[in-house]
Amino acid sequence: MSALLEVRDLVKTHRVAAGTVHAVSGVSLRLDAAETLALVGESGCGKSTVGRAILQLPPPDSGRVAFDGTELTTLSRRRMRALRPGLQMVLQDPRAALHPRRRVRGIVAEGLVNARRPKGETAATVDAVLTAVGLDPAQVADRRPEEFSGGQCQRIAIARALAVQPRLLVCDEPVASLDVSVQAQVINLLADLRAERGLAMLFISHDLAVVRTIADRVAVMYLGRVVETGPVAEVYARPRHPYTRALLDSSPVPDPDAPPLGPALSGEVPSPLDPPSGCRFRTRCPLAEARCAAEVPALAEVGAGHRSACHFAADL
Predict the structure, then answer these.
(1) Peptide bond into 94 cis (omega under 30)
(2) Annotated domain spans of the chain
(3) What is the pLDDT of residue 150?
(4) Spatial CB neighbours of 169, under 8 Å, sequence gap ≥ 6
(5) Which band of pLDDT confidence, cut at 50, 70 and 90, is reported for residue 32?
(6) Burial class of 121 by CB neighbour count within 10 A (0 to 12, 13 to 18, 19+)
(7) 258 pLDDT band (50/70/90 cuts)?
(8) Contact 87, 4 (CB under 8 A)
(9) Crossing angle of helices 150-163/119-132, nearest 10°?
(10) d(CA 1, CA 53)
(11) How many CB atoms lie within 10 A of CB 66?
(12) What CA–CA distance (Å, rounded) separates 306 from 303?
């Protein structure tokens, strides 16, 4: 079966006064229709840059991004604009994502208006998607974002994305700015919408507990590279990269008496201006040897659909 989204060797750098930031260095991902892939890692690892590069906002420096068989990196602006309804993004800060002076009806209708949909169809679609995200159109459509809570604003942002009938949602830390109780509501909403509408989701997060509840597969990033990927249940039960183990050790678990999986993560993340040679995690890894500085470990199969970029994955 062909993938809905296929990313190959994605590279993205940023020029700053101090030099070149190596934000994403050769990331490859696959996402099937109606599947949720979580992209996780510490702040600054490049996961949000991957999400934006997939949507060509802005395009990557090199690599391939194929959506439903169409290569996006070579498209003209006009052709990319025509495909944008199929790929939508939900951002971390819903208040910043919504125009403060516009009313909710206009915000949600934005994509439909740009696509020149008939007014009657647009009005009906706005009401339908507001209802789908748990909001009453009669109560919210003529109000402005400042009148709503953060959770309600995120529902409005999700409604705006749904209005153009996307096949893929890129959700960039969509619950990170919300209270814990509201986080659960929004996560459940996204899971329900995925099931009802057959949506595929790239779910970007630093919260492993949240990822476990919503994702089918997970890809773990460290300093611009994917270091482990596989089915959520498999990766969580038997992580095969020291970084993944460290992330899981630092994540709260229901059983306080459960033993840690491995040594705790220590040290600072190296600068992406000058990433370490070989394995980029080696400066913080308890298993590191001379080989780790000389060779970049390949992302190799360690189980069914489970891959790890560690020279010692077989021993973990």
Answers:
(1) no
(2) 241-316
(3) 93
(4) 88, 89, 90, 161, 190, 199, 200, 201, 202
(5) very high
(6) exposed
(7) low
(8) no
(9) 140
(10) 24
(11) 17
(12) 5
Q: How far apart are CA 244 and CA 55, in angstroms?
A: 27
Phi and psi based region of residue 228 (left: phi greater than 0; alpha: psi -120 to 50; beta: remaining) = beta
Neighbour-count burial of 136, counting CB atoms closer than 10 A to its CB (0-12 exposed, 13-18 middle, 19+ buried): exposed
pLDDT in tens, 175-230: 998 988 899 999 999 999 999 999 999 999 999 989 999 999 999 999 999 999 99
Does the global pTM surpass 0.85?
yes
Distance in angstroms (rounded) separating the CA atoms of residues 275 and 292: 13
Joined tokens for residue 33 = 């229709």
Which pLDDT value is given to residue 3?
93
62-107 pLDDT, tens per residue?
999 999 999 999 999 999 999 999 999 999 998 888 999 999 999 9
Collapse the DSSP code of 138 into the 3-class scheme (helix H, G, I; strand E, B; otherwise coil) and give the result: helix
d(CA 28, CA 229): 10
Please answer whether residues 162 and 197 qualify as being in contact, where contact means their C-beta atoms are separated by less than 8 angstroms: yes
Residues 6+ apart with CB under 8 A from 232: 38, 211, 212, 215, 216, 217, 218
Q: Which amino acid is at 85?
A: P
Q: What per-residue string of b and e applies to 228-259 under the rule 16 or more CB within 10 Å gives b?
A: bbbbbebbbeebbbbbbbbbbbeeeeeeeeee
Q: Does 275 score more than 80 pLDDT?
A: yes
Q: Which two structure tokens, joined as six digits, stand for 278?
A: 């070989």
Provide the 10 A C-beta neighbour count for residue 33. Answer: 15
Cβ neighbours of residue 159 under 8 Å, at least 6 residues apart?
A: 108, 126, 129, 130, 132, 133, 135
Q: Is residue 271 packed enough to be buried (19+ CB in 10 Å), middle (13-18) or exposed (0-12)?
A: middle
Torsion of CA 301, 307, 308, 309, to 10 degrees: 80
pLDDT in tens, 237-256: 999 999 999 999 887 655 55
Closest CA to 311 of 242, 216, 222: 242
